[in-house]
């Protein structure tokens, strides 16, 4: 008796972009994508995106969930959970529902998180949050337009010394 092929679940699809592979243009997938190479363009994934250490994306990343261990130069939109591994370098704005940042990860940009943060609504500006009467965010830089780089982690003694001063 011959077996009939079962439909493939998109979450079970694994697309691998190898270490020496360069993709020019938009990468779209309904399954999971592992990037060890370079994507010069946008990444649009309906599953999970994993950018391995040494992997690079120069463009916007949109995904249901993502784990970043490499470099992203562009906006990151994740509907559910975004993990920045200790080797991650992200230069661009982040929109996600949940964010996990490991010690050593670097992020330069703005972050909008919480319910619906990864939707298509525009990024919140500092002036709009100030005019809406909400409390100012003390982690933002003092000068308009600056996008400070934050290296997360570091030595515990340095943070204790700053807190006790």
Please give a structural write-up.
With 165 residues, the chain is mainly β. The protein has a domain at 11-116. 9% of the residues lie in helices and 42% in strands. It contains two helices and 15 strands. It has helices at 126-131, 156-164, and strands at residues 14-17, 22-24, 27-29, 32-35, 38-40, 43-51, 56-58, 61-68, 71-73, 76-84, 89-91, 94-101, 106-108, 111-113, 149-151. The strands form two sheets. Strands 1, 3, 4, 6, 8, 10, 12 and 14 form an eight-stranded parallel beta sheet that branches. Strands 2-5-7-9-11-13-15 form a seven-stranded mixed beta sheet, with no helix packed on it. The radius of gyration is 18 Å and the shape is globular. 24% of the residues are buried. Residues 120-144 and 156-165 have low confidence and may be disordered.
For the CA atoms, what is the radius of gyration?
A: 18 Å
Distance between the termini: 77 Å
What structural class results from the helix and strand content? mainly beta
Give the SSE order as H and E letters.
EEEEEEEEEEEEEEHEH
> What are the low-pLDDT stretches, counting only 5+ consecutive residues below 50?
120-144, 156-165
Overall shape: it is globular
Descriptive keywords:
165 residues, mainly beta, 8-stranded parallel sheet, 7-stranded mixed sheet, 9% helix, 42% strand, disordered C terminus
Compact summary:
The protein is mainly beta. It has helices spanning 126-131, 156-164; strands spanning 14-17, 22-24, 27-29, 32-35, 38-40, 43-51, 56-58, 61-68, 71-73, 76-84, 89-91, 94-101, 106-108, 111-113, 149-151. The protein has a domain at 11-116.
């Amino acid at each position: 008796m011959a077996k009939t092929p079962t439909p493939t679940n998109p979450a079970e699809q694994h697309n691998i972009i190898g270490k020496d592979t360069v993709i020019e243009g938009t990468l779209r997938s309904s399954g999971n994508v592992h990037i060890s190479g370079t994507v010069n363009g946008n990444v649009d994934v309906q599953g999970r995106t994993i950018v391995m250490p040494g992997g690079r994306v120069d463009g916007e990343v949109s995904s249901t969930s993502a784990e970043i261990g490499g470099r992203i130069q562009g906006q990151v939109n994740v509907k559910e959970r975004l993990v920045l591994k200790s080797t991650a370098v992200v230069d661009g704005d982040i929109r996600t529902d949940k964010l996990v940042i490991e010690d050593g990860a670097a992020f330069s940009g703005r972050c909008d998180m919480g319910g619906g943060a990864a939707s298509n609504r525009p990024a919140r500006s500092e002036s709009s949050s100030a005019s809406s009467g909400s409390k100012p965010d003390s982690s933002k830089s003092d000068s308009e337009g600056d996008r400070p780089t934050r290296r997360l982690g570091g030595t515990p003694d340095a943070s204790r010394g700053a807190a006790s001063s």
